[in-house]
TrEMBL record:
Its EC number is 3.1.1.29. Residues 1-90 are annotated as: Disordered. It catalyses: an N-acyl-L-alpha-aminoacyl-tRNA + H2O = an N-acyl-L-amino acid + a tRNA + H(+). Keywords: Hydrolase. GO terms for molecular function: peptidyl-tRNA hydrolase activity. This is peptidyl-tRNA hydrolase. Residues 54-79 have a biased composition (Low complexity). It comes from the Bacteria. The keyword Hydrolase applies. The keyword Hydrolase applies. Pfam families: PTH2.
Length: 327
């Protein structure tokens, strides 16, 4: 379920340590007609799918275990090196940026707020999946994709620089105040996440700046079920310990990488399916092969919780496996 509304906001600087993650990657495109180009890859924070279109090995899931298990892939497809510059688009406008230009550009962050009530906190996996779906929902919203959309400039500037997402938590009156700001609320099975248009690093609305960003811990009361082969899967690194908030931001990064690699028709099919996806922990014995498979990989800048350059999530979509995708 998705709901959206508009409200007024007032900027206020946010503390520097509140960066949940920073993963720099190029942006192949976000608006209509901006599907992936073979000349544009993902940079600095991710590797791109096999440019030859080869099917990457995909592990299966075991619903009775905390980690996903699969046969060892017979082969992998190393990703190619990324180009020196990339092209970013909003509608029909293109903005060439190289890595140095992105670092020098004004930096923005995508705020997400998860509702965590004391009496009924959401399950961890559902929260991660809902956060990823919230990011995708914003990326396809006409306020972000239309050339004259209310959020188009902010989304363009955010994607032209380092890609940052910060997840905060709220309950009760805090949640109600957050919902009065312009944004989109996305509901999972037991989770509500509200995503807001990007804001400058030091320009958080006061209603969001005072929300807690660290220490968001959630558990799964039951092991997550096995998703079907038609469902995109975001594979978490089994060797990393991340708070729920950190993992939610990383899942959002992985979903965004997958989105960038899809053509318009494939994006529309995913949107019609309400951005169905699964987040699962990969089997430890298969994680290294996943990172070499040619699938998009999120690499963290290491500002919080984990070491710089850590691979956190691999984005696996049926399209990347060379299979028809229908839901």
């Amino acid at each position: 379920m998705i709901s959206s509304d508009n409200g007024a906001s007032e900027g206020q600087p946010a503390p520097a340590p509140d960066h949940a993650t920073d993963r720099g990657a190029s942006r192949p495109g976000s608006g209509p007609g901006s599907g992936p180009s073979p000349a544009v890859g993902l940079r600095d924070g991710a590797t791109d799918p096999d440019p030859n279109g080869a099917s990457a090995p995909v592990p299966a899931l075991a619903s009775s275990h905390a980690h996903a298990h699969a046969p060892e892939p017979a082969s992998t497809h190393p990703s190619t090196s990324s180009p020196v510059a990339d092209t970013t688009e909003v509608g029909s406008a293109a903005y060439p940026r190289d890595a140095a230009e992105r670092d020098a550009a004004p930096q923005f962050v995508l705020p997400l707020v998860v509702r965590v009530e004391k009496a009924a906190p959401p399950p961890r996996t559902d929260a991660l999946e809902t956060a990823a779906r919230a990011v995708l929902t914003l990326l396809c919203d006409e306020r972000a994709t239309a050339v004259d959309g209310a959020w188009a400039e902010a989304v363009r500037d955010w994607q032209d620089a380092r890609i940052r997402k910060v997840v905060r938590r709220a309950r009760g009156a805090e949640w109600r105040r957050a919902c009065e700001l312009p944004g989109i609320t996305v509901s999972g099975a037991h989770t509500e996440v509200r995503v807001f248009p990007p804001v400058p690093l030091d320009g958080w609305p006061k209603e969001l700046a005072k929300l807690q960003v660290s220490g968001t811990e959630l558990d799964d009361p039951q092991p997550p079920v096995t998703p079907g082969p038609e469902v995109p899967v975001l594979w978490l690194n089994p060797e990393l310990e991340m708070s729920a908030g950190k993992a939610m931001a990383q899942a959002g990064h992985a979903a965004q990488l997958a989105w960038w690699e899809l053509a318009d028709a494939q994006r529309e099919a995913w949107r019609r399916a309400d951005f169905a996806l699964a987040v699962r922990v990969a089997a430890p014995e298969h994680w290294a092969a996943l990172t070499r498979s040619g699938l998009p990989v999120v690499r963290d800048a290491g500002f919080t919780e984990i070491a710089p350059g850590s691979c956190t999530v691999v984005a696996d979509h049926p399209i990347f496996r060379g299979r028809p995708w229908e839901l």
